[in-house]
Amino acid sequence: MKVWLYRILFLVIILVFQLTVSREIRSHLFETIISKNNTYSNYGYHERILPINIGKRVATLQVYFNESSKNVSVKLPFGMYFIFGILVMIMTGAKNTYYKYMVSVHAIIFLVLIPTIYAGLYFYPTLLLIVDFMSRYMIPLISLGIVAIQLANQHLITHAYQS
User: Fold this and answer.
1) CB count, 10 Å around CB of 135?
2) What confidence tier does 150 reach under pLDDT thresholds 50, 70, 90?
3) Between the CA of residue 51 and those of 21, 22, 79, 145, 152, what are the distances in Å?
4) Cα–chain center distance at 27
5) pTM, rounded to two decimals
């Protein structure tokens, strides 16, 4: 019973931190990088960027390359997939190493995305394809992958003790 109280307390602390401090930092940083007043046009003869939807922490941009265009999603890590993964790990009683993996991976992606977003918006729009890939696929895959690995290892350890 005492373990569950600690888990619930830790869960509440993480949620409060995410909804107050972390969300505001991400929103401010995102608004600093992606200014709502900038149209990001005329990079070269065949490249331009038009904002479709710019929110507080997510933006959808239309990037035109040569004769084609692509809608690009731009968002920062430490968002929904991070908090979902952390909450599942708290409720299942994960070891500290898995929390360190989750935070480290999101921090590395964060440190890669910030200059890539900036360079893509202001210098070379093709880099926004990397940002789109990391935002749409890499962050969710790694976040949920760490949770899956943690659950699989926990199941194997539990199974080994029962044998």
Assistant:
1) 23
2) very high
3) 27, 25, 21, 32, 42
4) 13
5) 0.81
Measured distance CA(61)–CA(70) in Å, rounded: 8
Helix ranges, 37-138 (H) = 80-92, 96-122, 128-133
Q: H/E element holding 63?
A: strand 58-65
Element (H, E) at 24: helix 23-33
Cα distances from 151 to residues 24, 25, 147, in angstroms, run 31, 30, 6
Map tokens 């898995």 to a residue: 98
d(CA 104, CA 4): 26
| CA–CA gap between residue 96 and residue 14 (Å, rounded) | 15
SS3 (DSSP) at 59: strand
Q: What is the pLDDT of residues 80-100, one digit of tens each?
A: 899 999 999 998 888 989 999
CA–CA gap between residue 46 and residue 26 (Å, rounded)? 32
List C-alpha distances in Å: 56 to 53, 115, 146: 10, 19, 27
